[in-house]
Design goal:
Keywords: Membrane, Transmembrane, Transmembrane helix. With 236 residues, this protein is mainly beta. The protein is built from two helices and 16 strands. The strands form four sheets. Strands 1, 6, 7, 8 and 10 form a five-stranded antiparallel β-sheet that branches. Strands 2, 3, 4, 5 and 9 form a five-stranded antiparallel β-sheet that branches. Strands 11, 12, 13 and 14 form a four-stranded antiparallel β-sheet that branches. Strand 12 and strand 13 form a beta hairpin. The longest helix is centred in the middle third of the chain and has 5 residues.
Amino acid sequence: MYVVNVSVVTNVSCAFSVAYALFIVRRKLVLYPNGDKSRNGDGYISLYLVMADTTGFPPGWEINAIFKFFVFDQLQDKYLTIGDGRLRRFSAIKNKWGLSQMLSLSIFNNASNGYLIGDSCVFGVEVFVIKNEGKGEHFSMIKDPSDVTFTWEVQKFSELTEEFYYSQVYLAGRHKWNLKLFPNGNMKQRGKQLSLYLGLDDHTKFHAGWKLFVEFTLRIRDQVRSHHHEETSEFT
């Protein structure tokens, strides 16, 4: 329950309850004592349920819940229940649900109704989590990405004896990359052609299911005639 000292909060646009945990999810109530005017709540008490901390949630998280708000009638010792019983889906896109016109101020401020007694009132919420499911997808695109050229000079190529070699790590597009060289070819190309790959060096920091679209060009320089051999490709 959320106990409010009305004279303290009437001069602010909204007030927050202390976050509480339910099914390992922290939630809080957001109260607009003078109404959420941005959502046509002028003249009403506005109350919302908000996900308090979602920083550790995986990409595409969703929480389906049904909830009811309560206002305590301090004279009758009972609660006024407000809610339509509809399922609400909380997500990174919309993590707040509630009522902009929960209760009219004229009814709320009338002491004979029992909601506001001795400058205090009590709000509550009952939450039923239906199911945590679904994985939404979102993507961001770097506008006008800068071209990054990385040069790896391999010394004493004829003396390379290992199956493969890595270049030093370099930074491009906010991520760390490297090149992987197979001097004698890899898999079906073994003994036939040189093999060269682009690798994402910091892939372990991403969540499961992440995807990254990359377009790149690998080039082997012709140091004599400048007839460079290059291949352009892409991957996700």
